[in-house]
Amino acid sequence: EYIDPVRVITNKSSGKMGVAVAEEALSRGAQVTLVYGPGTAVPPMEAKKIPVETSQEMYEAVVSELKSQKYDIAIAVAAVADWAPEERYEYKVPTSTTAALTVKLKPTPKIIDTVKEISPNTFLVAFRAEYNLSDEKLIQSAYERLKKAKADLIAANDIGRKEVGFGYDTNEVFIVDVNKKVVHVPLATKREAAKRLFDLIVNKITKSKT
Asked: Exposure string (b/e) for 31-54, b if CB count within 10 Å is 16 or more?
């Protein structure tokens, strides 16, 4: 999220979990569209890639895709910025003549809250990152977010834990469904976590069709 043309507010997300999910989907024969921010992980060549920078660009790309064609599954893995500067300077703010800079932030659009509004039949999987919570509070926070977004599943992790979340090749996730049933994936590679997630997605979709 730009303060000026040079400086940005961001987070430490690498995109590794999103890429792992895309790779797992491709391995199962899915056609994949990856709306991808400025991460360090290399997206799979087989996926249709839509590069974005800001939360607004990601919001517009997701909305456009959902309106233009039918998607069976939407997985909101990206660690989208929650805040953006209210004012974006069109020039590089000079430190030589600016003694202090106050940046007022505004909330960014919540992409997952629009998915079901645009495409009610799309199976929606949300992700939620928290920091230093107990398992119980992490699961409760995830469940409340799932209900708000009308999601079908949500995968939650605590980036305060060792080797979990941003920048790591491993993750620990708690996958929660609409009935608050929880599947815990202990620390594993992000690809293994993606595999476990897709096993659940396939199981849920198959059950809904029988």
From this structure: ebbbbbbebebebbeebeebebeb
